[in-house]
Amino acid sequence: MENETQNSNVYGAYFAPLRSGDGVKMLVDGLSSAELEFIPEHWLSYPAPPASAHTALALMYCFFTAAALIGNGLVIYIFATTKSLRTSSNLLILNLAIFDFIMMAKAPIFIYNSAMRGFAIGSLGCQIFALVGSYSGIGAAMTNLCIAYDRHSTITRPLDGRLSRGKALLLIAFVWIYTTPWSLLPLFRIWGRFVPEGYLTACSFDYLTNTFDTKLFTGCIFIFAYAIPLLLIMYYYSGIVRQVFAHEAALREQAKKMNVESLRSNQNASAESAEIRIAKAALTVCFLYVASWTPYGIMSLIGAFGDQQLLSPGVTMIPAIACKGVACIDPWVYAISHPKYRQELQRRMPWLQIREPDDNVSTGTNNTTNSAAPAATA
C-alpha cells in the first residue's frame, strides 16, 4: 500500500491492462511505463472515448485554428504595417492578437493526437503544447487587464490619461515577464508540472495530483492569473461606466440650463462615438475572456480541492474548447468595432465589402468645400 502511494503511476502501469481485460479499451491502453509517468492517476480508470469524439474535436479545432490564425494574422499584419494604427493603445491590441495567434498555433499537436486517438505525440509534444498554452492564456489575461486600464485612464482622464508609447511598451514587457514564471516553473518541474488531460490529447498544468505542492500551485495560479486580473478588469470597466453616466448627466443638465438640445458639436460627437466604440470592443473582448476562462478556473479548483469524480475526460474537454473559442472571436470583435482598422481592411481588401466611411475622404471633401467658398466670393 505504501509503494502504491509513493508511485501511483507504477500502479497504473501494472493494473491498467488488467482493467481492460474484459474487452473495454481503456484511456491509457497502449502507453508505455515512461509515458504513464506523465499521466495523473485520475485518468487511469476511464475507458477510451469513441473514435467519433476524437474526430469531432479534431474538426472543431481545425475550424478554430483557421479562424484564429486568419483573424489574428490580419490584425498583426495590418496593425504592424499601418503607421496610423501603430498608436500606444493599439500596441496592446497587437500584443493580444499575438497571444491569441500563438495559442492556436499549437493546435496541430492536438489535431494530430486526436487523429491518432490518444497520447500520440508523447511527452515532448505535451510540454510544448502546455508551455505555449500557459504563455498565451496568462498573457492574454494580463493584456486584457492592460487594455482595461488604458480605456479607463483615457475615458476618465481625457486630458492627461492617454497612454504614452513608452508606457505601453513597459506594460507589454511586464505582461511577458509576469507570465514567464507561471510557464517555466511547471515546465522544469520546479513547482507544478505539465501533464495530459481529458482524452490525453491536450496538456495543461497538473491540478489532479493529490499533493500539497499541486494544490498550492493550483490555488496560486488561479488567484494571480485569473482572479486578480478579473477583479481589476471589473474595477476599471465599472469606473468607465460611472464616468460616462456622470458625464452624460452633466451635459444634459447644462443643456437644459442653456435651453439648447445638445452641447456637442458634430465633430466632437463623432470623435466621442469612435472612442466609445473602441471601449465597447475592449469590454466585449474582456467579457469573452471571463466567459471562456471561468469554466477552466472552476474545473482546476474542483480538481485540486473538490470532488474529482465530477471531472470525466469528456467534461474536462469542454473548458478547453471554450478557451480556444475566445482566440477566434477577439480579432473579429476588433475588426467590427475599430473604425480605422475597418477602413484599412476596406482599403487593402475591398472584396470584403466592409463599407466603413473613410476619414481621409471626409476630410478632403470638407477642405475642398471650405477652400471653394472664398474662391467663389472672390
From TrEMBL:
GO MF term set: G protein-coupled receptor activity; photoreceptor activity
Compositionally biased intervals (Low complexity): 363-378
CDD domains: 7tmA_photoreceptors_insect (cd15079)
Protein name: Opsin
GO annotation, cellular component aspect: membrane
Transmembrane segments: 58-80, 92-112, 118-147, 168-191, 216-237, 281-305, 317-337
PANTHER family, sorted: OPSIN
Gene: UVRh2
Source species, domain of life: Eukaryota
Membrane topology classification: Multi-pass membrane protein
Compartment(s) where it occurs, according to its Swiss-Prot or TrEMBL record: Membrane
Region (Disordered) location: 356-378
Domain named G-protein coupled receptors family 1 profile: residues: 71-334
Keywords, alphabetical: Chromophore, Disulfide bond, G-protein coupled receptor, Glycoprotein, Membrane, Photoreceptor protein, Receptor, Retinal protein, Sensory transduction, Transducer, Transmembrane, Transmembrane helix, Vision
Described function: Visual pigments are the light-absorbing molecules that mediate vision. They consist of an apoprotein, opsin, covalently linked to cis-retinal. May play a role in photoperiodic photoreception.
Family: Belongs to the G-protein coupled receptor 1 family.
